[in-house]
């Protein structure tokens, strides 16, 4: 038996009330992607990396000749 227009409206109203009781569907909210953006810009990240790694590089350049001369002195003592 086919629905009458009155039954159809009543069914639509009932369905609308039931969905309102259930709240929003989670599938609709998860379908949107949010772009995760870094709080630091690329320029600041490069600058911080240069400060950290550059300081390490300058410190190694200062220490390596001292270490090299230490090993040469030990080698000269052993051989000479």
Entry summary:
With 80 residues, the chain is mainly α. Helix content is 76%, strand content 0%. The N and C termini lie far apart (113 Å).
Task: Characterize the structure shown.
It holds the Pfam family RAMP4. The chain is mostly helical and about 80 residues long. About 75% of the residues lie in helices and about 0% in strands. The mean pLDDT is about 85.
User: How many strands, what sense, and barrel or not for the largest sheet?
Assistant: none
Which blocks of ≥5 consecutive residues have pLDDT under 50? none
Backbone structural class: mainly alpha
**Ends distance:** 113 Å
The average pLDDT is 85
Helical percentage: over 70%
> Could you tell me the strand content as a percent range?
under 5%
Using the CA coordinates, give the radius of gyration.
37 Å
Give me the count of strands: 0
Q: Give me the strand/helix succession.
A: HHH
How would you describe the oligomerization state of the chains in this entry? single chain
Counted by DSSP, the helix tally is: 3
Judging from the principal axes of the Cα atoms, what is the shape?
rod-shaped
Per-chain topology:
Elements: H1 5-22, H2 26-30, H3 42-79
Characteristic key phrases:
single chain; mainly alpha; 3 helices
